Amino acid sequence: MSQDPRQALLDIAKSAAIKAGKVVLEIYDSGDFQAYEKDDDSPVTSADYKANEIIMEILQKETPDIPIMSEESNNGDLDHRKDWQRYWLIDPIDGTQEFIARSGDFAVNIALVENNEPVLGVIYWPPGETLYYATKGHGAFKSCPLENKQIQVRSFDKPLDDVVVIAISRRQSREKVMSRMTQERTYQTLPLGSCSLKACFIAEGKADVFLRIGVTGEWDTGASQCIVEEAGGNILAADFAPLTYNLRNTTENPDFIVMGDRQVNWQNIVHYDLGTAK
User: Where in the chain is the domain with CATH 3.40.190.80?
Assistant: First the structure.
């Protein structure tokens, strides 16, 4: 039986994420980095740029024919990239605010997008030496010093009644999120940092849903989407429309929702009002 051609690309992505992550952790531990503010008022650090440099160098060397879109690079407008049938999509550090705040909740994200759909995802959490990864049709996995296993979203015993665990951003108003949840369910909240780590917690069954209200880019969801879907969940725009990749001039995502068990009618749980969401 021939090997899935994506396996070699997965190995490259895993190696790049781990190498960049180890350097990022060294910088994090030393505290020797510079923080800046980008034009959109979001933070970036010298560690983001270093991680981007490492990942770009590896991907360009190993896969010179595959273009790269990165949060920390100039990606050009849609006319420049609209014909890409396959490309790498990377976020060198997802959770830069958490990196600066020293919470430890940051990760390296690498996705492969084919025909505008994420088909490979790698997320590396440096402080925990933990790697989450998936390729389309082959399941989602977690690898760390204590375990190496396939992961699945939590299966509800009673989809209509079970307590729902909400992964919630440390820096987002709890009330803002809870106001969009139906009052007919019981909830627990799990505070976390980066978007991708919250998605991974849902993929491995530690949380059930995450509503992201605020500015993100396609690189924030690409790797997560592949991992969560292969673990039995979904990522959609907060109005439950599909997320898109490389189909618009902007690379900015709409607000989005990460959901676990597909037996649950999430549209009955999350009530998202387009008029008041921001």
Answer: 164-268
